[in-house]
Specification:
about 475 residues; 434 Repressor (Amino-terminal Domain); Arc Repressor Mutant, subunit A; three-stranded mixed sheet; HTH_RamB
């Protein structure tokens, strides 16, 4: 390379086109030949320091911006894509990737756009598989109100400041900031003329809560534990005092069925109830002080572990953000019953199926929090905690349901969590979103082949790897 020279062909071409010039026009302005302009744009000739100054003076272009490489960010994005396991059998040295980003930025950007479209399509196909939508179906959302409600919440990062403000205003007008059960009961009596009774579930046909409009009373199952009683009281208050605001928010959603609207309304009522029991600013302050210790938060606010973990996913109010978390709840069979995303995670919509994530193994250690570092196929890393929770019970012979819940955040936030102390020494576990979306070639836990890969014939060699890939 020539001394005091710079190869910047794609940037030079972009400048010329932005100015609406032909190669001949630029050559005349710079007092060089059109062929030399063409050679520089193909990186076959350098742009000397003298010529760079002439460019800046002639076209009033900032010389720093003109000389800036600009390929580092593009190279990093391209490199992240090419590190995915689907490209593992292709030799792609980092230097070549950097050369492509620098010399052919248009091609690199085209590849990135294609990869984004590919990712969206395979996620759509995965959702069709999960929901049973066959070919020719208009889309999974038409037959899956749960998916529509989850999409509604995820698009808003599971954060609704108007509901937080509404619930906080009610909490401030109640003794003890709305934390005590007695304060909630008085609210019903004084504001709504409702008598609150804690009764045997048989009297309300096995329900947890029943609002008897005729007798002006609210009956709550006495079999519920204290946090569950308080949540049922707060949930009924949400339906009485925040129904208008909840309705306005639901009307903003693009729902295709009444069932989807009902699911979203129920989720927002639960959101308001949690915001009443755990007001946004006090809860965020306590979360930071305890370093996001879920058990400590549940005791401080008189809620369950799951309720506190759930509330942590909602702390994304602009200017008052907490650590962005993703929450998932599933049963021992792997059925996901709740997903909440306050972080925009890639596996928020379909993740949870990978058996290598400890959320599946915590059933072996009930009640104990298990931490884990996670790495997705694209190299993105997360940190998670998982624990079992239970529902039901309250009397001998009453059915009990055990589930596992997990909170996950980007690894960059790990140091803010009390659970992250010493976790840096743990090796990250390679997991995938789902087997048919994961292209890791040597995963012993694989239960299905990935989309877009041919399987290798095992006529002469069996490696013991389920669904081994061709070429591996």
């Amino acid at each position: 390379m020539a001394r005091n020279a710079l190869y910047m062909g794609p940037r030079l071409k972009r400048v010329r086109r932005d100015l609406g010039l032909t190669q001949a026009n630029m050559a005349a302005d710079l007092d060089i030949s059109p062929s030399y302009v063409a050679l520089m744009e193909r990186n076959q000739r350098p742009v000397t320091a003298e010529l760079l100054l002439r460019l800046a003076r002639t076209y009033h272009v900032d010389i720093g911006a003109l000389a800036e490489d600009g390929g580092e960010e593009l190279a990093a994005r391209l490199g992240a894509v090419l590190r995915e396991p689907i490209f593992a059998d292709i030799d792609l040295p980092a230097l070549d990737v950097a050369d492509i980003a620098t010399s052919y930025p248009g091609f690199a950007e085209a590849l990135l756009r294609l990869h984004t479209a590919y990712g969206e399509e395979r996620l759509e196909l995965a959702q069709r598989r999960e929901t049973g939508a066959g070919e020719g179906a208009a889309g999974p959302s038409l037959s899956n109100p749960v998916a529509e409600a989850r999409t509604f919440l995820a698009a808003r990062r599971n954060c609704f400041p108007r509901l937080d403000d509404s619930a906080a205003a009610v909490a401030e007008g109640m003794p003890g900031q709305g934390q005590g059960q007695d304060a909630l009961v008085r609210r019903f009596e004084e504001r709504h003329g409702l008598r609150v009774l804690f009764v045997e579930p048989d009297l309300i046909l096995g329900a947890q809560r029943f609002h008897d409009l005729h007798r002006r009373q609210l009956m709550i199952s006495k079999r519920l534990d204290h946090p569950s009683r308080r949540f049922q009281l707060a949930l009924q208050l949400a339906l009485l005092e925040a129904d208008g605001e909840i309705g306005r928010l639901v009307s903003e959603g693009a729902f295709t069925s009444d069932n989807a609207r009902r699911m979203a309304r129920r989720a927002l009522a639960g959101y308001w109830a949690a915001a009443l029991l755990m007001p946004y600013r006090p809860f965020l302050r306590a979360a930071r002080q305890t370093r996001y210790d879920v058990e400590a938060l549940s005791r401080e606010f008189g809620v369950s572990f799951e309720q506190a973990a759930h509330r942590l996913t909602t702390l994304q109010r602009a200017g008052e953000e907490g650590v962005p978390f993703f929450f998932i709840r599933l049963d021992a069979a792997g059925n996901v019953s709740k997903r909440l995303d306050g972080a925009g995670f890639p596996f928020a919509r379909h993740g949870g199926a990978c058996p290598l994530w400890t959320v599946h193994s915590v059933f072996q250690t009930p009640g104990r929090i298990v931490t884990q570092r996670l790495e997705l196929p694209d190299g993105e890393r997360f940190f998670s905690i998982a624990r079992t929770v239970s529902a039901g019970g309250g009397a001998w012979g009453a059915p009990v349901m055990s589930r596992a819940v997990a909170l996950a955040c980007a690894e960059e936030h790990m140091g803010l969590l009390v659970y992250g102390d010493g976790a840096a020494a743990m090796a990250p576990t390679p997991i995938g979103i789902a087997c048919h979306l994961c292209h890791r070639p040597r995963c012993l836990a694989r239960a299905a082949p990935p989309l877009g890969r041919d399987l290798r014939s095992d006529d002469y060699r069996d490696t013991g790897i389920p669904f081994a890939f061709a070429g591996d």
